[in-house]
């Protein structure tokens, strides 16, 4: 047992809480559960959820983490916290008192972020998190235990659903229109517009509006689309798709705000720990741990590191500009503290970095771009005067959901054959073809008819398809 | 104020929540090993007969597929300052080490699983059936001495005492001498059979043990065991019918068998031996090398010693037959004979070879011929396959092994022949 007991935790929690209130962090009720390392491994495998449906992939995840942990390849995280109301955090018994205090302070930062950032407030209902996961787990177990269904068929559907769960609408702040609304909008758009030059230049011929098309507008929520438009799915299969989709939607904000969120929590644990009256030995240990957490990962992006630096930079710059009454103060109350509170509410990683990762900061962080060349990864561009914008673009498109390809359903009756036609909205990043093949296979299994995916491979338009006879890739003219 | 829920170790014990999912993942991995077996068996590293050696088998883990980007595009990362264009920061295609790439890359999930050779072999042979031995009329007689119970007797050593029967004998004697007041307690259970006595109405089970203990004690006089009561189990030596098998490995060791051909042959014999020894208690292995003459050799010589000269296949077969008749009579032994050669036989010997092969088919459970022709060479080298095609015995199988990957399929084909034969 480490050098603390529950009384210590309560004492320091009260002290931290005072600072949290002073700063103005706006938190849900907070609960902590003390667990040992094997429980922690268990929580990690199931995304921290006290209840979660079973699937072999979580067993794999557990074994992987455990193997790495047992061989000392990775340590366990100090903190694990889930977005729920009350907010639930885990503390590991083996950790020192210093780490517990650090973790508690850090968790309050996350808690505030969960409660206030728009991605979370739009997409998730924190008060229902635990019960939602619990009922989902119960439903999946019921299907698995149902003799007419069984675990194999359940996992079969879950395998396919997991493969496609990240192909969903990315911005919960944008409401998806219902089919009727899409219809109205299309009709409205097709109305001739008032054109003052109509007499001079005849209007271009308009394509005929086909309102029977499914979907009316390209649809990104593949699982929901299959659920709603494949009439052969059983109720339990539809339910599984719903469960997986909803879980993806729950985790989406965390993917979209990884850098902001970790940066925010690190920023505040740093501030709080510095203002607490910590005994010297604990303070020294804190400095060591803090630096471990926010150290850069060479060749990668450590969200704690980048986030921490950007938040600091914002606060400093806006403090300075407020003092110097610079032209940069479009926002009211332009002092740094207000600014960061505003930003933590209104941004996500992409916009956060786009707006606040400055050229100076990029150079400071030594952000560069690299590419595989032969056997090696070679640096191609660094954040110098000419290239920092390019490097920044490369970074921006890989953060959050940017790391997942955008694929939309265009037609559910392609070739009048019930074939599903999808398009990959390409940038210059190609799909991994082996993965695309298997994923299309999963989609084919769910949809029951041929599936086609239009994409670009090595600069050439390519049509991938998966049907009864397996996978095929063709160049398109 | 935050709520702290203290750690309770009993919860921790109960909460191995991922056990079921881990098991399912392991099952999937096991399937993967089995499906992958052709690759594994053709890796030279595992061909070897050190049974307790633990071998590392890298398995492609159960991948979870999604739509992801390939690795042809640039990525961004942070450096330690002073990074220059052109600097090499890591190895491509290696996840994790050094490069520290983001976790969203489609890495190859590699699991290093410790599998002992035994386990591997068990997995491999899981879907193969036991070669049938029952069809032999005079079969396995070689036996093992095992004590088997057969009846009871009045004399014997103490450890064989059957206490239950002894106690019953005493009670029986007690009843016979009239010492038990059976008439006074109609509800007593019958002391001999332990079943409710017929005097008692069976519909009233509550009275089953109804005799007051005190009453019984009053009547209870000392009634010791006598020598007559003692009953011993009688044990007889049983001859258990057991199966014996002999694997006759016949290999062409002539000059034309180069090391590649020998490697292929060795892989095949390795499998054959492992399979047979996993199915039979007692496996003998006989190695016969031949060029123009045949002789029995040690395992070491069989695999490593090169010889030179021409080839007379019949010499190998005749030697095999000789050994069989000499030491492994077909009525007592299951005989598996397999011959590996590059098919380069001396023309005048072909008729003799076929004749000897036919004879081998008669005495062996299985006789197989594997022609080893590293890829393509069978177009210009002579072959025995055509010759042996004339043999119509059910238990003959000839296979062509062109490369490592052929070994497992041909091994399966070899054994399936046995199954077909036994079915008829």
Folded structure, characterized:
The complex is a heterodimer of chains A (477) and B (424). Chain A has helices at residues 6-23, 37-45, 56-70, 97-116, 118-123, 129-145, 150-164, 179-190, 222-229, 235-256, 258-275, 280-293, 303-324, 336-346, 349-356, 359-365, 388-396, 433-447; strands at 30-35, 80-82, 87-92, 367-373, 376-382, 407-414, 419-424, 451-457, 460-467, 470-475. Chain A is α+β, with helices and mostly antiparallel strands. Chain A has 3 domains: 1-164 and 217-293, no CATH class; 307-401, no CATH class; 405-475, no CATH class. In chain A, strands 6-7-8-9-10 form a 5-stranded mixed beta sheet. In chain A, a hairpin with a 4-residue loop joins strand 2 (80-82) and strand 3 (87-92). In chain A, helix 1 (6-23) packs across helix 4, helix 2 packs across helix 3 (56-70) and helix 6 packs antiparallel against helix 10 (235-256). Chain A is globular. Residues 328-333 of chain A have low confidence and may be disordered. Chain B has 424 residues and is α/β, with parallel strands linked by helices. Chain B folds into 3 domains: 25-63 and 109-127, no CATH class; 149-236, no CATH class; 242-423, Rossmann fold. Helix content of chain B is 32%, strand content 21%. Chain B has a 6-stranded mixed beta sheet, sandwiched between helices. Chain B has a two-stranded antiparallel ribbon with strand order 2-5. The N and C termini of chain B lie far apart (81 Å). The relative contact order of chain B is 0.10. Residues 42-60, 94-112, 130-143, 183-217 and 418-424 of chain B have low confidence and may be disordered. The interface between A and B is large, with 90 and 62 residues.
